[in-house]
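Researcher: Good morning. I'm working through a list of sequences from a screen, and I'd like to move beyond sequence-only analysis. For each chain I'm collecting a predicted structure so we can compare shapes side by side. This is the next one on the list. No need for commentary yet; just the structure.
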Amino acid sequence: MSLKSYGVLKGRPINARLGAGDSPHYQIHLIDDDTDYRIAINVKSKLEPSSLLYLLDDDYDHSMLASLSDLPLGFKTLDNRPGTAAMDYIRGNHFERQRMKPLPHSIPGPDNDLNEKIHAYVQRAIEDEQALLYAFGERWGPETKKDKHFGFLPGNGIHDIHMNQGNTSKWSSDDGVWQDGGLIFQFPRIADENGVEVWPEQWVAIFLAFQSQAWHTDDQTGHKIDDNIIVETKDNSIRIIAALVNPAGSDPGHETVTLLNTTPTPIDLNGWSLLDKNKNRSSLNGNKIEPGDSIRIQLDGKGVQLGNKGGAISLLDQNGNKIHGVSYSKKQAKRTAWSIVFL
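Model: Good morning. Structure tokens for this chain:
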């Protein structure tokens, strides 16, 4: 069925509470020009293992950021498809899966649990009047009663701030593609009294998922396909290491993607393919990569197309499993004839 009202909430955080109790949620009080909202963030799973998978990227750069800056304050419904600001952890190439690590919601000591990791950036945003917070998830409200945590009326907010696909059967009705949740912070550029930049604009992203969720899901329903298949944990046998997105002259037929074989054995790429953010596909039939070698794939412009306003590239094996994925921003693509390197 998917989420009923998926979108992004943009505003100024003004208060927060750590998650506690039997079903702990980290709570954020956020405002736009005339409305109060509460962001409810799961920090502990009801299923074992209870620790959520967590990733914080304090130098986040993705093609979706340009569309976020243009959004007005408040909640914006998003279409569940590529090319919008909608998130999909698997298809959107926001990060590599193996970078996510389990983290308990509460541990004795400073700055070592999920509550505290989230709180550090929320508190920084609260203290900076120019900072903005974007919360992706499902909208609820407005309600007829006061908010139970911050007391504003009417109660109103957003939850499901985590991956929303590949769920176990109990929660599979929430599955869908291009509807994952997350937090993105936008911290302003800082300049001295002469206008000289001393700190650039900074984007910080927090991604959350339950350990019970599958990472190989149906492209239409978001339901898990095989619990035993975990994408991007096959030692990254083949990696996308570079792409020529903005060649000199016309783009069609001159864009390239470079792949690296990290294994000690040759890999035949018959049946493998590349996908762009719009699901355009280019076959890799007829290519083979020797151990430790790389190969540059020339795109003919009829399949994968690498837009200069940002995009994503995914590598699929002969069974349709995603082996690796990368994304790039408009800023990265603006240099003519330069290849973008993916570390």
